[in-house]
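Progress note, sequence design subtask.
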């Protein structure tokens, strides 16, 4: 009879999983026994944190989850940071791990990779964490995971399989995949919301990452309302490039805050209204005084951060379509003129924190206009969160939101490149953040991915250094010598080039598309000139 571990592979395929990121270990070897014949693609990162970041980037770029195969103990604590980032940003990820034998759990016997309670440890960075007690329970537990991915606020799900369960005989299982749909808003609630929006004089739309899968409907709704729209970082591209109603991520800035405060009706679609999108000054200054309509697939989220006057537990796309049916006529509110005035007041490209990077970011878009840009926490990414415009959703994301981890950019970009191989992908990283997951360059080389790794090299942790200076704190631990990235690239059988001008960067980006693997583009920040 077939082993439990092998049945797991069959069920993953049945649920639509195509890619597994994992590092084999003695505790997960049974998961690999049938992997070559399963039809699943396996990618071996150089660190479990990289596996999680790759799965994150893959999901954000494609809208589909990937799986991670992770050993017990240190493997799980290594991936926990990546799970925390995915949980904060509502990114689906399936983490399958081993755990010690059932009869040894919680006994503290000093066994290999032992944690006092691994399931409990990982429950804090997952939607749910489950220990599989019998092979027969496998379809049910996986069904729960994919129900979360399809119909609720997504995030990481962790399933651990004890060493004595993995090789157990598992009866033939008919891979039954339940069609799960997100909740639908009642007609009465849609009618109420439509009435408020129709009567509004100064409406405002707030677009969050929950709009990524409903771009057409959301864009049409914004246009029908003729209302200014603020987009969070994870909603960038929902309205496309240069849309006359798109204010971008300006909720933390004075002109954006004033617009929000004076809006008489605010429609918040798929956004948690959290600090890293609406209060980057960390002073609690974002206020909504008009009536607030919130739409989210997480019931608890409807009550967090900003109290709603009308809360709809529903899929954003379905609500947008429902409102369009009830708002048949284009409103005439001079929305584009209002947005133009606010953009002029914001003057983002001239702002102190943005201006040094504006020409640099323009070059990325000009050289590879269809690229997905995946960022780490670094100066150009922070600036791009304000001014970068993308032609579609899922083309700009980074770890400067939510959990705010370093080391995300490179492995997440690789995950995105594996998920959408037809599209150029740029990893936009700082030299400090890149050192966290530098080893994943070899993973990209092994995969043969033509990934452009653009390094904003300011010899250390530039953003923290600047913050220390502003707070009159002595610089300590932030001035770090970086390696010679061009020589490093050569040692890893990759191409590397050092640039300091727009023309050289443009040429290097264009050439990266023809490379058989990753290209390291070392941008000398202190010499950069347009």
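Output:
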């Amino acid at each position: 009879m077939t082993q439990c571990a092998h049945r797991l592979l069959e069920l993953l395929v049945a649920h639509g999983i195509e890619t597994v990121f994992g590092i084999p270990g003695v505790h997960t070897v049974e998961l690999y026994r049938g992997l070559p014949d399963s039809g699943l693609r396996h990618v071996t990162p150089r660190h479990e944190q990289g596996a999680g970041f790759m799965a994150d980037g893959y999901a954000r770029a494609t809208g589909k989850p990937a799986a991670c195969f992770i050993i017990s103990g240190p493997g799980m604590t290594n991936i926990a940071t990546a799970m925390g980032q995915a949980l904060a940003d509502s990114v689906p990820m399936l983490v399958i791990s081993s755990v010690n034998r059932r009869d040894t759990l919680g006994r503290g016997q000093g066994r290999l990779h032992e944690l006092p309670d691994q399931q409990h440890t990982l429950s804090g960075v997952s939607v749910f964490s489950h220990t599989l007690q019998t092979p027969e329970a496998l379809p049910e537990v996986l069904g729960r995971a994919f129900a979360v991915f399809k119909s609720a606020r997504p995030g990481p799900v962790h399933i651990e399989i004890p060493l004595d369960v993995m090789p157990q005989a598992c009866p033939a299982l008919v891979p039954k995949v339940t069609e799960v749909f997100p909740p639908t808003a009642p007609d009465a609630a849609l009618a109420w919301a439509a009435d408020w929006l129709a009567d509004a004089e100064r409406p405002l739309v707030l677009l969050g990452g929950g709009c990524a899968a409903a771009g057409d409907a959301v864009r049409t709704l914004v246009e029908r309302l003729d209302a200014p729209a603020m987009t969070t970082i994870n909603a960038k591209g929902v309205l496309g490039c240069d849309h006359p109603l798109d204010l971008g991520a300006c909720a933390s800035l004075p002109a954006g805050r004033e617009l929000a405060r004076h809006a008489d009706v605010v429609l918040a679609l798929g956004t948690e209204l959290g600090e890293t999108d609406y209060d980057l000054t960390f002073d609690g200054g974002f206020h909504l005084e008009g009536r607030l309509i919130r739409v989210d697939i997480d019931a608890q989220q409807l009550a967090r951060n900003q109290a709603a006057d009308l809360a709809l537990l529903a899929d954003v796309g379905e609500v947008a379509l429902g409102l369009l049916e009830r708002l048949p006529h284009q409103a005439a509110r001079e929305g584009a003129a209002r947005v133009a005035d606010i953009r002029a007041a914001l003057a983002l490209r001239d702002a102190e924190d943005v201006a040094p990077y504006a020409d640099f970011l323009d070059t990325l878009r000009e050289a590879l206009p269809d690229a997905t840009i995946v960022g780490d926490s670094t100066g150009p990414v922070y600036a791009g969160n304000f001014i970068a415009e993308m032609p579609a959703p899922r083309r700009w994301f980074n770890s400067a939101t939510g959990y705010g981890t370093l080391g995300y950019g490179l492995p997440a970009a690789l995950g995105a490149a594996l998920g959408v191989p037809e599209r150029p992908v740029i990893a936009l990283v700082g030299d400090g953040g890149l050192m966290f997951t530098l080893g994943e360059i070899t993973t990209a080389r092994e995969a043969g991915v033509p990934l452009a790794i653009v390094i904003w090299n300011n010899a250390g942790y530039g953003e923290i250094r600047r913050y220390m200076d502003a707070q009159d704190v002595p610089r300590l631990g932030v001035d770090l010598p970086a390696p010679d990235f061009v020589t490093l690239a050569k040692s890893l059988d990759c191409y590397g080039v050092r640039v300091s001008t727009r023309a050289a960067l443009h040429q290097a980006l264009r050439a990266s598309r023809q490379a058989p693997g990753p290209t390291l583009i070392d941008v000398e920040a202190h010499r950069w000139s347009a």
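The mean pLDDT is 94. Work on this subtask will continue into the next period as scheduled.
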